[in-house]
Design a protein that fits this description.
about 100 residues
Length: about 100
């Protein structure tokens, strides 16, 4: 798992932000997910990739809060971890502390 701050996007609209993230990620995802926000998070977007070999899936998740986003990446060789990866991505909340 990797977690890090994303860039600032105050002057862009939602479609522009998603398009710019889409360009930065590997091509041909298995699926894309977009969800409305809750718990202080504006909205969420994720790209899922399934691979052969040692890595069975990679989930790139983004949680948008105010003018920035949190970038999370979950990689596993166990496809049973996929539910955990989505749950972890969705568990991100805003902390005022």
């Amino acid at each position: 798992m990797w977690v890090g701050p994303g860039g600032s996007w105050r002057c862009a609209n939602g479609a522009d932000i998603i398009a710019s993230l889409d360009v930065e990620l590997p091509p041909n995802p298995t699926g894309k997910v977009g969800e409305g926000g809750r718990d202080g998070v504006g909205h969420r977007a994720a790209w899922l990739y399934r691979q052969d070999g040692d890595v069975k899936f990679t989930l790139y998740g983004f949680n948008f809060i105010d003018g920035t986003y949190l970038d999370t990446t979950f990689i596993s060789a166990d496809t049973a971890d996929l539910t955990w990866a989505f749950d972890a991505w969705r568990s991100v909340t805003r902390s005022d502390g």
